[in-house]
């Protein structure tokens, strides 16, 4: 194994730059805290883990204001953001913002806030919580999925970009 000769700050900056070149989808993950208050965050760290059982993962910063809610609640919802949700994503990605103040969410049968016009809505429950350095890896068991035909939003080069606004002609 080789060790980096870069100073830690330079390594962090290069790592951030490298990750910014990798486009990823954007999700909004929601739950409720012990008082029933809506909690949530935006995440680009989302992927499938297993088909049988159906598992997905999302990573949350340990410094996130809603981290405690996701550690104590086992009922979660994951929304793949659609192109109409760029402002909403930015709100959910902003620390201290009133994330649920815009009225876009309703409570599902479990009391979890859900975005009904999401490109994909995944009802899930906690399967595992794993240490991931300065993040916690939340592994969720998928209970129900609703897929819409809305195009998703991508996070690329530190910006949210609706897929339907990215020219794909001749890209492949």
Automatic annotation (TrEMBL):
Pfam families according to UniProt: Flavin_Reduct (PF01613)
Keywords annotated in UniProt: Oxidoreductase
Domain of life: Bacteria
Flavin reductase like domain residues: 19-162
SMART domains in the record: Flavin_Reduct
InterPro entries xref list: Flavin_Rdtase-like_dom, NADH-dep_flavin_reductase
Protein name (Swiss-Prot/TrEMBL): Actinorhodin polyketide dimerase ActVB
Species this protein is from: Nocardioides daeguensis
Gene, per the UniProt record: actVB
């Amino acid at each position: 194994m080789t060790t980096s000769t870069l100073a830690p700050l330079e390594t962090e900056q290069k790592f951030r730059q490298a990750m910014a070149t990798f486009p990823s989808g954007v999700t909004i993950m929601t739950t409720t805290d012990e008082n029933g208050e809506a909690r949530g965050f935006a995440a680009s760290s989302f992927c499938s883990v297993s088909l049988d059982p159906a598992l997905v993962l999302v990573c949350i910063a340990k410094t996130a204001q809603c981290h405690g809610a996701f550690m104590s609640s086992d009922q979660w919802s994951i929304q793949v953001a659609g192109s109409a949700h760029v402002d909403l994503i930015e709100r959910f990605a902003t620390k201290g913002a009133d994330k649920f103040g815009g009225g876009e969410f309703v409570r599902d049968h479990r009391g979890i806030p859900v975005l009904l016009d999401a490109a994909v809505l995944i009802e899930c429950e906690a399967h595992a919580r794993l240490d991931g350095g300065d993040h916690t890896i939340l592994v969720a068991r998928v209970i129900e999925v609703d897929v819409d035909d809305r195009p998703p939003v991508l996070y690329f080069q530190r910006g949210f970009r609706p897929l339907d606004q990215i020219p794909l002609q001749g890209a492949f």
